[in-house]
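Write out the 3D structure for:
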Amino acid sequence: MSRYRGPRLRIVRRLGELPGLTTKTSNKLHPPGQHGASSKQKLSQYSIRLREKQKLRYNYGVTERQLLNYVKKSRKGKGSSGKILLTLLEMRLDNIAYRLGLAPTVVAARQLISHGHILVNGKSVNIPSYQCQPKDTLSVKNSKASKGLVERNIEALGNTIIPDHLSFNKDQLEGKVNNIIDRKSVALIINELLVVEYYSRKV
């Protein structure tokens, strides 16, 4: 399944707040669809797990295959599979660029990276899924177009709250990964264990 390119507010209304997908908010409080406003149907356990999985997919902008691979990798690690899964997703280059405030959404951050505007440790990296490590430094390509684009993003976003595992020098447009993200710093409201349970029959 490819990445979602449809109406983003429709997804937000269905799944709840997804900061990595869009900065917009909907005036409608009920879910999308003809019966969204009146639906009081109780969700099954499968539906609850599916919703949590969809939250991860849409917020981090990954495909179904990518998310399944992340789940497989997290189950091989030592410790909580859910926590490892969130760490893998949060330490992606596109998500780090988004959390530093270089772009308004993960989708926009992916485009920045794909177009070669972002450097990692002084080298151009155009792979959004690149796994950042502690002590990695992110900077903006030394060109008028790249810096102008990022500066406009920063100005439009205002005061971005930088999580504890990252630091950002606004004057030099340079960010640093200080350490692996802590669970408390994850912006998305998610029950990651339900996602692991959803994929338990597939891995």
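The CA atoms of residues 66 and 145 lie 31 Å apart.
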